[in-house]
Every structure is written in structure tokens, then in C-alpha cells.
């Protein structure tokens, strides 16, 4: 319970530091080619550590919402396991992790906690609206928000790297709200994937 109170306090503190710029009021720039690797391509920024192969581990921990989740690397690819879910979506111009995505973040944090040799990269993304600089900064805030929540839930600093692709790695091409909604996200990528 204490961890959740601290997490809520941290999220409130981060939200209070939000910039006043918005994604849709900044000028729209042409699309740049999508970057293919953390830190690769133009405009990507990173923080954290380098990655190492995923450690084994075959323990079982409680899954969010009841039941059990196997903490082996195979669980990451099992579509029936919450660990196969990797996308945390954000509201327009926001970087606060929504309640509906906290179980996913918690599951990945618990996986890292159970597998101390495992590493993950959190990739922050934005929609196409806004300047390149603004979107790189917003993408980094989104990646850092997921990382900070994972740290509060048991992962360690050395296990998580963050990178911002801004608007340069869209999930869905398009210039409408449904495309923008899919592009406002942070992706959790485990080492070796």
C-alpha cells in the first residue's frame, strides 16, 4: 500500500511539472524516416544503461488482477500473458500513466524484479503534431513516467533504459485522431527482442 501512495505522489509531482506547450498548437513538420534502434536515427535521445541478454528465471509471481504470471522469458511472448502487452497509451499532450495501463507496467516491473539480469528499453513516442524538439521532450517524459512507475514497483535503475523517438516512429500513418491516439505511447521492449 505504501508503494502505491508513493507512486501516486510521484505521478502527481511529475504531472505538476508538465509544460504549457501542446502537441496540436505547435507547427506540424514533415515526417522524418523512422528510427530502427534505440538512439539510432535523427532526433532520438536516450538515458539509462546499455542492455544485456535477458536472464532466465522460472519463478512464479502474483499477476495484477489475480492469478499467476510465469516470469520466464517465454512469458514475454505468450499472447495469453499480460507480459505480451507492451504499449502504454497516453492522453493528448500528457505523460501520466493512466490507470488502465498500470497493470501492464506492474507486470513488467515484477518480471524485472524476478529476473535481475533482465533489461528493458522504454521507447517514448508522440503523434505528428508539434515541433521536433517539443515531441522529443514529450516522448522522453512519457518513457520516464513508465520507468519511474516501474522503479517504484520493484525494478532497478540499471535494468531500464529510456529513449524518445518523438514523432519519428509512428505506429500508424495518418493525419487524424485515430492515428494520433495510437502514436501517443510508450513501448516496453525487453533486451534480446
Provide an overview of this structure.
- The chain is of the alpha+beta class and 193 residues long.
- It has a single domain, classed as 60s Ribosomal Protein L30, Chain: A (2-Layer Sandwich).
- The chain has four helices and seven strands.
- The strands form two sheets. Strands 1-6-5-7-4 form a five-stranded mixed β-sheet.
- The termini are far apart.
- Mean pLDDT is 74; it is low at 8-70.
Instruction: Please state the CA-atom Rg, rounded to the nearest Å.
Output: 16 Å
Q: Please give the CATH architecture.
A: 2-Layer Sandwich
Count of DSSP strands: 7
Low-confidence stretches: 8-70
Enter the CATH topology name.
60s Ribosomal Protein L30, Chain: A
What is the ordering of alpha helices and beta strands?
HEEEEHEHEHE
Q: Specify the CATH homologous superfamily.
A: OmpA-like domain
CATH class: Alpha Beta
Helix fraction bin:
25-40%
Helix segment tally: 4
- How many domain units? 1
- The share of residues in extended strands comes to 15-25%
> What is the average per-residue confidence, as pLDDT, rounded to a whole number?
74
> Which class best fits the helix and strand makeup?
alpha+beta
**Biggest sheet, in brief?**
5 strands, mixed
The separation of the N and C termini measures 33 Å
Q: Report the principal-axis shape.
A: globular
